[in-house]
Amino acid sequence: MTESPQQNRPDSPGAASRGDDGRQSQLTKRGGGAPATRGRTTIADGVVEKIAGMAARDVVGVHAMGSGLSRTFGAVRDRVPGGKSVTRGVKAEVGESQTALDLEIVVDYGVAISEVARDVRENVIAAVERMTGLEVVEVNIAVSDVKLPDEDDDEDESESRVQ
Description:
The protein contains four helices and four strands; from the N terminus they run αβαββαβα. It is α+β, with helices and mostly antiparallel strands.
Protein backbone atom coordinates (compact mmCIF):
# COMPACT_ATOMS: atom_id res chain seq x y z
CA MET A 1 0.00 0.00 0.00
CA THR A 2 1.38 3.38 -0.98
CA GLU A 3 0.47 6.72 0.53
CA SER A 4 0.63 9.89 -1.45
CA PRO A 5 2.30 13.01 0.00
CA GLN A 6 0.03 15.31 2.00
CA GLN A 7 0.19 18.20 -0.42
CA ASN A 8 -1.41 16.04 -3.12
CA ARG A 9 -4.34 14.98 -0.93
CA PRO A 10 -7.13 17.56 -1.00
CA ASP A 11 -8.56 16.38 2.35
CA SER A 12 -5.29 16.71 4.30
CA PRO A 13 -5.14 19.38 7.04
CA GLY A 14 -2.53 21.51 5.28
CA ALA A 15 -4.12 21.35 1.84
CA ALA A 16 -6.14 24.22 0.50
CA SER A 17 -9.55 23.30 -0.85
CA ARG A 18 -10.30 24.55 -4.30
CA GLY A 19 -13.62 25.46 -5.76
CA ASP A 20 -14.88 24.67 -9.27
CA ASP A 21 -13.04 27.68 -10.65
CA GLY A 22 -9.67 26.62 -9.15
CA ARG A 23 -9.38 29.44 -6.58
CA GLN A 24 -8.49 28.77 -2.95
CA SER A 25 -11.50 28.60 -0.64
CA GLN A 26 -12.06 31.52 1.72
CA LEU A 27 -12.49 29.08 4.65
CA THR A 28 -8.86 27.93 4.67
CA LYS A 29 -6.22 30.62 4.51
CA ARG A 30 -2.48 30.46 4.52
CA GLY A 31 -2.17 30.83 8.36
CA GLY A 32 -3.97 27.55 8.99
CA GLY A 33 -7.36 27.44 10.66
CA ALA A 34 -9.85 30.02 11.75
CA PRO A 35 -8.44 33.30 13.12
CA ALA A 36 -10.01 32.63 16.53
CA THR A 37 -7.86 29.50 16.94
CA ARG A 38 -4.55 31.18 16.15
CA GLY A 39 -2.87 32.00 19.42
CA ARG A 40 -3.55 31.73 23.12
CA THR A 41 -5.40 33.89 25.64
CA THR A 42 -4.30 34.00 29.25
CA ILE A 43 -6.28 35.61 32.04
CA ALA A 44 -4.48 36.89 35.13
CA ASP A 45 -5.61 35.95 38.63
CA GLY A 46 -6.28 39.64 39.35
CA VAL A 47 -8.76 39.90 36.50
CA VAL A 48 -10.82 37.01 37.84
CA GLU A 49 -10.54 38.46 41.37
CA LYS A 50 -11.94 41.81 40.22
CA ILE A 51 -14.84 40.20 38.39
CA ALA A 52 -15.67 37.99 41.38
CA GLY A 53 -15.36 40.89 43.83
CA MET A 54 -17.74 43.07 41.85
CA ALA A 55 -20.23 40.22 41.43
CA ALA A 56 -20.16 39.37 45.16
CA ARG A 57 -20.73 43.00 46.18
CA ASP A 58 -23.83 43.13 43.97
CA VAL A 59 -25.63 40.58 46.18
CA VAL A 60 -28.11 41.95 48.72
CA GLY A 61 -26.96 41.10 52.22
CA VAL A 62 -23.23 41.42 51.52
CA HIS A 63 -22.05 44.36 53.60
CA ALA A 64 -18.32 44.20 52.81
CA MET A 65 -15.56 41.94 51.59
CA GLY A 66 -12.53 40.75 53.54
CA SER A 67 -11.61 40.28 57.18
CA GLY A 68 -11.51 43.09 59.72
CA LEU A 69 -7.77 43.55 59.26
CA SER A 70 -7.93 43.70 55.47
CA ARG A 71 -10.85 46.15 55.68
CA THR A 72 -8.82 48.37 58.03
CA PHE A 73 -5.88 48.42 55.63
CA GLY A 74 -8.34 48.89 52.78
CA ALA A 75 -9.82 51.99 54.43
CA VAL A 76 -6.36 53.56 54.43
CA ARG A 77 -5.73 52.44 50.84
CA ASP A 78 -9.11 53.85 49.77
CA ARG A 79 -8.00 57.35 50.81
CA VAL A 80 -5.36 57.30 48.10
CA PRO A 81 -6.81 58.28 44.71
CA GLY A 82 -7.22 55.18 42.58
CA GLY A 83 -6.44 53.00 45.59
CA LYS A 84 -9.87 51.45 46.10
CA SER A 85 -9.49 47.70 45.88
CA VAL A 86 -12.34 45.60 44.51
CA THR A 87 -10.25 42.48 45.04
CA ARG A 88 -10.29 42.77 48.85
CA GLY A 89 -11.50 39.46 50.28
CA VAL A 90 -11.10 37.56 47.00
CA LYS A 91 -8.43 35.01 46.07
CA ALA A 92 -8.42 33.27 42.69
CA GLU A 93 -6.39 30.41 41.28
CA VAL A 94 -6.56 30.44 37.50
CA GLY A 95 -5.53 27.56 35.25
CA GLU A 96 -5.73 27.19 31.48
CA SER A 97 -9.47 26.49 31.38
CA GLN A 98 -10.64 26.48 35.01
CA THR A 99 -10.59 28.68 38.08
CA ALA A 100 -11.26 28.28 41.79
CA LEU A 101 -12.20 31.14 44.11
CA ASP A 102 -12.07 31.86 47.82
CA LEU A 103 -14.19 34.74 49.11
CA GLU A 104 -14.34 36.31 52.55
CA ILE A 105 -17.48 38.34 53.19
CA VAL A 106 -19.21 40.33 55.91
CA VAL A 107 -23.00 40.00 55.91
CA ASP A 108 -25.66 42.35 57.22
CA TYR A 109 -27.35 41.35 60.46
CA GLY A 110 -30.71 39.65 59.92
CA VAL A 111 -30.07 38.06 56.54
CA ALA A 112 -30.08 34.30 56.03
CA ILE A 113 -26.37 33.59 55.69
CA SER A 114 -26.87 30.37 53.75
CA GLU A 115 -29.07 32.19 51.21
CA VAL A 116 -26.61 35.07 50.85
CA ALA A 117 -23.76 32.58 50.36
CA ARG A 118 -25.79 30.71 47.72
CA ASP A 119 -26.64 33.95 45.91
CA VAL A 120 -23.01 35.12 46.02
CA ARG A 121 -21.83 31.77 44.66
CA GLU A 122 -24.37 31.85 41.80
CA ASN A 123 -23.64 35.48 40.90
CA VAL A 124 -19.87 35.02 40.98
CA ILE A 125 -19.95 31.84 38.89
CA ALA A 126 -22.24 33.41 36.29
CA ALA A 127 -20.14 36.59 35.99
CA VAL A 128 -16.74 34.87 35.86
CA GLU A 129 -17.83 32.20 33.37
CA ARG A 130 -19.61 34.71 31.13
CA MET A 131 -16.77 37.23 31.07
CA THR A 132 -13.75 34.91 30.96
CA GLY A 133 -14.99 31.66 29.46
CA LEU A 134 -13.26 29.80 32.30
CA GLU A 135 -15.06 27.00 34.12
CA VAL A 136 -15.49 27.87 37.79
CA VAL A 137 -14.85 24.61 39.64
CA GLU A 138 -15.50 25.93 43.16
CA VAL A 139 -16.35 29.06 45.10
CA ASN A 140 -15.52 28.79 48.80
CA ILE A 141 -17.15 31.43 50.98
CA ALA A 142 -16.02 32.34 54.48
CA VAL A 143 -18.30 34.63 56.45
CA SER A 144 -15.89 36.53 58.70
CA ASP A 145 -18.28 38.96 60.39
CA VAL A 146 -21.83 40.22 60.75
CA LYS A 147 -22.51 43.95 60.45
CA LEU A 148 -24.80 44.96 63.30
CA PRO A 149 -27.16 47.90 62.74
CA ASP A 150 -25.60 50.02 65.51
CA GLU A 151 -21.96 49.42 64.44
CA ASP A 152 -20.00 52.11 62.64
CA ASP A 153 -18.61 51.23 59.24
CA ASP A 154 -14.86 51.13 58.71
CA GLU A 155 -15.40 53.65 55.93
CA ASP A 156 -16.98 56.09 58.40
CA GLU A 157 -13.79 56.00 60.49
CA SER A 158 -11.82 57.31 57.53
CA GLU A 159 -13.78 60.59 57.58
CA SER A 160 -12.27 63.58 59.33
CA ARG A 161 -13.35 64.23 62.92
CA VAL A 162 -13.41 67.98 62.26
CA GLN A 163 -16.04 69.36 59.95
